Amino acid sequence: MLIAPIGVFGLMADAIGTYGFDVLTVVMKLFVVYVAAILIYGFVVYPALVMLFSNTPVLRYMSAMKKAQVVAFSTASSMATLPVNMEVVEKELKVSNATASFVLPLGATINMSGNAIYYGLVAIFFAQVFQIDLSMGAWAAIIITSTLGAIGQAGVPGPTFLVVAVLLAAGIPIEGLPLLFALDRIFDMVRTALNITGDAACAIIVDKYSPDYDPERWTKSA
Fold first, then answer.
1. Would you kindly state where each structural domain of the chain is located, as residue ranges?
2. For residue 75, what pLDDT is reported?
């Protein structure tokens, strides 16, 4: 652990020496695009799903998730955020304990849309860096491996080495990966906030179809 930063520095120095400093500007563009995709998914897709498939007020959902999102962003760990997310979902979004206890721990392991977005964008990024024209088969491989990789990712902070599988499946070289190591923690923080937001949305929707669901719960609380 003590010498890991030295190793990362060496990998980054080698990558920058090979591709030049201009590639760092391209990496920052990747980060901007990634954050934009996360914002669209978190503030458009998930609220739309909650609005269409549940009776929970969308504004209440988005407001309640702030507490869990802050913890997720600071820890970059879905598992560390799980107790806070359960408290928010049960107490503020009024999801039953039975539903929350089943959906949220499961979602912290397999429901990682932020990771899937990251894998796909990184694959496209390196395809452009190496000027590779992706075939339909390569696109399909990126989609499938990104989805499977997101399901298999651990809910703890750390480098997303599963992106290697995505790149290899699409026939994209992995030599440029060290370029992303410096920003990996930031990428991890952002995607974790989205992941736990999605977990909560799933719990809300699943709870609506639970036998114990009370359709008048928001009326009673008002």
1. 4-115+175-221
2. 87
In the prediction, which pLDDT does 25 show? 80
Give the C-alpha distances (Å, rounded to integers) separating 98 from 41, 52, 70, 197. 27, 22, 25, 19
Question: Percent of the chain scored above 70 by pLDDT?
Answer: 84
User: Residue type for 190, please?
Assistant: V
pTM recorded for the entire structure: 0.83
Q: How confident is the model over 42-74, as pLDDT tens digits? A: 999 999 999 999 889 999 999 999 999 999 998
**Helix (H), strand (E) at residue 204:** helix 184-208
Decide yes or no: CATH 3.40.1350.10 for domain 4-115+175-221.
Answer: no
Q: Provide long-range contacts, Cβ within 8 A and 24+ apart, for 123-128.
A: 123/163, 123/166, 123/167, 123/170, 123/172, 125/26, 125/30, 126/167, 126/172, 126/173, 126/174, 126/176, 126/177, 127/170, 127/172
What is the residue-wise DSSP string for 56-123?
S-HHHHHHHHHHHHHHHHHH--HHHHHHHHHHIIIIIS---HHHHHHHHHHHHHH--HHHHHHHHHHH
Q: What is the average pLDDT across 158-185?
A: 77
